Amino acid sequence: MLFLENFTFPDADEEFDFRLGIKRTCYGSMYPFGTLSRRGFARIDFAPLTLLAGGNGCGKTTALNAIAEKLSLRRSAPFNRSPFFEDYIKLCGCDCRPVPAQSAVIASDDVFDFMLDTRTLNEGVARRREDLLGEYMQAKYAHVRLRSLDDYEALKKTCDARRKTQSRYVRENLQGEVRERSNGENAFLYFTEKLQDGGLYLLDEPENSLSPARQRELAQFLENAVRFFGCQIVAATHSPFLLAMRGAKIYDLDADPVDVKRWTELENVRQWRDFFREHEIDFRR
Question: What residue spans of the chain are helical by DSSP H?
């Protein structure tokens, strides 16, 4: 599915004209002006799966944020919204069909926040589990005499503890224990829960917190989301596993001017190739 067909950023001439109209000159930075234009990145023509590749500071995140703001996509994490960001967005253009309501931009901070929330929840479950273990032992060996309603509740607990094993007592009283997962598992789970059929999704370095094996799983998941479930995905990434996704159109933001390339032509990927070639003998031992 192709909701977003193309997007244009202001070129160097448009940015120059804008600067001439600025009366105050006390700003230390006019970000995002100058970030993408310095390498002639003025237009993206999208495919169902489009990737922005390049090193730190090349403008991948800036491009995603500009697209997200122009389309008013849902987002959770804040971003670098400088005093000139709205002016910059006004100079951007796009050719886009109506964007589905479930569409969103997902940044690394969103994934980190989800992992922290899940960890906090699991810590709460763990503390409750410890409390129930103590409660079980206390109830099982308690001697209760009925003198009030409070004693009745205590007797119920004692009877419950005596007819159940410790593990069953704890499990049933936790009422829906959250399964503890690794950070990588939670990060992968976040994407599988957030991406819905037929949505436009902008992903900023989704490989963060994922092991190589999980990155390969994510690549397969994103390929399937585009191929079978009508999603359009635009992602900024360093990951060779994601860059190698089938059918991906890749913009190399390290190139001057920015150009479309095969994943095997990217300098970042070639660095990985050269590294493993240098250590090829180590894999034979």
Answer: 12-20, 60-71, 85-90, 108-140, 149-162, 166-174, 183-194, 212-227, 240-243, 267-278
pTM above 0.90, yes or no: no
Q: Are 106 and 204 in contact (CB under 8 A)?
A: yes
Q: Quick one: which of 78, 108, 77, 83 has its CA closest to 187? A: 108
The residues near 126 (Cβ < 8 Å, ≥ 6 apart) are 180
How far apart are the C-alpha atoms of 69 and 89, rounded to whole Å?
7
Tell me the DSSP string of 191-204: HHHH--TT-EEEEE
Helix (H, G, I), strand (E, B) or coil at 237: strand
Query: In one letter, which amino acid is 148?
Result: S
| Run of H or E including 8 | strand 4-8
Question: Max Cα separation, the chain?
Answer: 88
What is the mean pLDDT, run by run of 10 residues, along the chain of 285 residues? 95 91 70 93 97 93 94 83 91 94 88 62 54 64 58 62 62 53 71 90 91 93 94 96 97 95 96 94 87
Helix 212-227 vs helix 183-194: crossing angle, to nearest 10: 10
Tokens linked to 56: 């730190």
> ω before 257 within 30° of 0 (cis)?
yes
What phi and psi, each to the nearest 5 degrees, are found at residue 214? -70, -35
Q: Give the whole-angstrom CA distance, residue 266 versus residue 244.
A: 11
The span from the CA of 238 to the CA of 38, in Å, is 21
- In our burial notation (b when 16+ CB lie closer than 10 A, e otherwise), range 174-212 reads eeeeeeeeebbbbbbebbeebbbeebbbbbbbbbbbbee
